[in-house]
Amino acid sequence: MTTMLFDSEKIQSLRTQEPQHPWRRRTPKFTWSVALAVVIPALIAGYFLFATAIPDPIVIIIIYLPLQLLAAGVAAAVSKGKNGVADAFIYVLAIGGSIFSLVILISLIVTLFINGLKAVSVSFLTQNNFYISPSTSLEYGGVAHAVLGTLLIVFISMLVAIPVGIATAIYVTEVRGRAVPYVRFFVQAMSGVPSVVAGLFILTVLILTGAMGPSAFAGGLAYAILMLPTVARTAEEVLRLIPEDLRTGALALGSTRARTVLQVVLPAAKTGIVTAIVLGMARVVGETAPLVLVTGTSDATVYNPFNSPIAALPTYIFGNVAQPFPDAVTRAWGAALVLIIIVAILFVIARIIGRGKVK
Amino acid sequence: MAGTEVMRDLQSAATSHRGDRIFNRTITALAFTALAVLAGITVFLGAQAVPVFQTLGISYLTTTAWDLTTTPPQAGIFGMLYGSVLLSVIGLVIAIPAALLLAIFMVFLAPPALAKVLTNVVDLMAAIPSVIIGLWAFYILNPVAEEWEILLNQYLGFIPIFQNNSGNFLGTPFIAGFVLAIMMIPIITAVSREVLARTPPELINASESLGGSLWTMLRYVALPYGRGGIVGGIMLGLGRALGETIAIFFVLKIVFDTNWYQIIESGGGSVASLIVSKFGEASAGLEIQLLLAAGFFLFVLTLIVNVIANLIVSRTGRLQR
């Protein structure tokens, strides 16, 4: 024992060492060839883009991309030898693929703000659509009724999905019954239910049977189907992080299992549970298909969740997108902007809470 | 291990308490809600499919038609089911390379700060509601994609899939597939990024110390290691794509005539969008039942894809732990 050949701690530190990534090592020759490999194809492609009539997509795909690959390959061959050529191709393709996704996302966000801000005003945020036709100018009418409707529907879905979702998580992490693998499997399967199918289910059970008409309550139940798996899975992950000592400690002090869960485990996981709830809200708030099927739509502000069709932001956007009137389309963009800001706020809240939890 | 045994003893001792039994039973009952919902969907939508089959027989699944004014009414969703699969395949062809390259860039190439930004970007992309993607695709993507399609037709029109006879390049499977790709990219990227990031550093270091380059490391270490997870992520993306409704509704012209392969020809099919597009005008009992039956088959299809995806993901997750 005393004459150990290898220092086991040192070996351990080597084992877990961060990879060195030798392909990141830079020499002056490398830097120069990369710079040339970036600039030359860009200049040539720029010439074709602006000085010739060849369509842009053809320039990018037929001229720029092969040229960039060739240049990167040559640069790699010069500075790193022939083993570097494949690496250079990967670099070019990976950066290209990332730019492709980024361009789409930036286009989405930018057009959303440019078009949405045309519609957003104080009246747009505070009025409903009651006296509004698709051709009414933008000074009148707004999405207040749709925002209220969305909040009401999401609130109803929370009343159902949060207790059930957290109970599911408690079953998996605290009760630990025999059916744990099955319960987890069903929750995972449920997370794949298409939103339109959730809507059809509620439609069949509640509306076609005549139990109730299109309403916020029906929409809330459809949303709950979509929200439940998110809440259950996130809450389960959070409860797993609670140290076992807390549970054994509480039991050792003579507390019952129910009190252990309700007064020790859940309070300890409070912020994580809130994160799970917020993520569940963000998951459903923009879902459109179920609402098209089960809430109908309304131009007035509706407070009664049971007996009246109700407007919501997604259905408001849905109804205005393909209207032949430019102002109606602008309303759709405005409502989309409001919706994405609500989603963004929910995610920021989840992030902030989540960050506090890690410490 | 002793800890779990103690825990088990404590549990059995504690569950003898009456309040605890009630607590346990309540929680257990609630935990089976997911199963109840899945069973409910199967029973209620399946029950609606029965009369449809009694009226139309198997032709509901094997033909493509939607004419309820004739007697007997003609209806078949084969073109819609096929269309859903075709759109998903187009989406996957675009999304898999884009998502994998993005994941590789984030894990192995990008500076850590940039990788963090990109992670948030991917999360943001996943969070955009599909109705907003549909709105964007209808007004912003459509004209751009039309230009691409005309070019494809002009230069590659001799390939059958790029034929277009109508001269209308809007409402095509290509545009709808592209929209699906936008929705699949964040899912596939997120899962791939996670499995690639879990490649054991000692394997990467070993590959490097043997003189391996980035390419050999990816080819022989990282990609084989993460293969199961990546395939699972792709299947999850596929499940999302098959069930996507609203965005497709805006960009695809639904026609009841199976569009087999002409991806830049106007008109195609999608089960999910069919349901929403026909729901507004559906009045009589039969048409609603037809749509509910379509929903039932959509549910079965996505359930199978998702179960396979989750099995793959969880199995690789266990292997790697």
Provide a quick synopsis of the model.
The complex is a heterodimer of chains A (359) and B (321). Chain A is mainly α. Chain A has helices at 8-15, 28-51, 56-80, 84-119, 122-126, 144-175, 180-191, 195-207, 216-240, 244-252, 257-268, 270-284, 289-294, 313-321, 326-358.
Any overview of this molecule?
The complex is a heterodimer of chains A (359) and B (321). By secondary structure, chain A is mainly alpha-helical. Chain A has helices spanning 8-15, 28-51, 56-80, 84-119, 122-126, 144-175, 180-191, 195-207, 216-240, 244-252, 257-268, 270-284, 289-294, 313-321, 326-358. In chain A, helix 3 runs antiparallel to helix 4 and helix 6 (144-175) packs parallel to helix 9. Chain A is flat and about 70 Å long. In chain B, helix 6 (112-127) packs across helix 8 and helix 12 packs antiparallel against helix 13 (285-320). Chain B contains 13 helices and 2 strands, in the order ααααββααααααααα. In chain B, strands 1-2 form a two-stranded antiparallel ribbon. With 321 residues, chain B is an all-alpha fold.
